[in-house]
Design brief:
The protein has 218 residues and is of the alpha+beta class. It is built from ten helices and four strands, in the order βαβαββαααααααα. Helix 4 packs parallel to helix 7. It starts with a strand and ends with a helix.
């Protein structure tokens, strides 16, 4: 019997890989549906029915469609609460609120500068696009300030939302993976004692290693 959960998009996408990591943490079977973005498949009418903004991932479960990777991850944790890592999204209101505030920090503070750097340093060369050195310098400085705050937080707790790995940490995996392993920005993480320790721990999780394997060229 085919899995009811379908994820549309390539594993190399940071947003797609976030959802895949969550599914692996929760031990939820799924089908990965390829979307050839180079051929514009993400802009075709049939795809826009499940992802109206024409981006990846799109997600379906029992015929119900969702988009936006962080919302999808929250849904997975709630729908499949009793599977896999049961504490991934907390088990009480306070734990969930703590996790949510760090997901928001990732989305609004960490995500924007790290995404610019991932695109400029990791993807632009592959796409044979000219890099914007001004944008690189500006966003490197922004990211440094964010990571200084993370360093302080992680001096007080093992993970961002407490002493257990949660969706708050998982949400940082995709962009950080590219910055540490595919650009010259890795030292921004590894030179900070607590951030480096945190990254080493979260990136070695079996769930994420499965996603990294999926990202390798066939």
């Amino acid at each position: 019997m085919a899995a009811s959960v379908k994820v549309y998009g390539p594993p190399i996408s940071t947003a797609v890989s976030r959802v895949l990591a969550c599914l692996h943490e929760k031990e939820v079977p799924y089908q990965l549906i390829p979307v050839n973005m180079a051929k514009g498949e993400h802009k075709k009418p049939e795809y826009l029915k499940i992802q109206p903004f024409g981006q990846v991932p799109a997600f379906e479960d029992e015929g119900f469609a969702l988009f936006e990777s962080r919302s999808i991850c929250r849904y997975i944790c709630e729908k499949y609460a009793e599977q896999g890592n049961k504490g991934l999204y907390g088990e009480n209101p306070l734990a969930k609120a703590s996790i949510d505030q760090w997901i928001e920090a990732e989305s609004h503070s960490f995500g924007p500068p790290s995404s610019v750097l991932v695109f400029q340093l990791a993807f632009a060369p592959r796409m044979k696009l000219k890099q914007d050195q001004g944008a690189i310098r500006q966003n490197e400085e922004k990211l440094k300030k964010v990571l200084d705050l993370y360093e302080e937080r992680l001096s007080e707790s093992r993970f961002l939302a407490g002493d257990e790995f949660t969706l708050a940490d998982l949400s940082h995996l995709p962009n950080t993976q590219y910055l540490v392993n595919s650009t010259d920005m890795g030292e921004l993480f590894t030179e900070r004692d607590n951030v480096g320790r945190w990254w080493s721990e979260i990136s070695s999780r079996e769930s994420w290693q499965k996603v990294v394997e999926m990202q390798k060229p066939a």
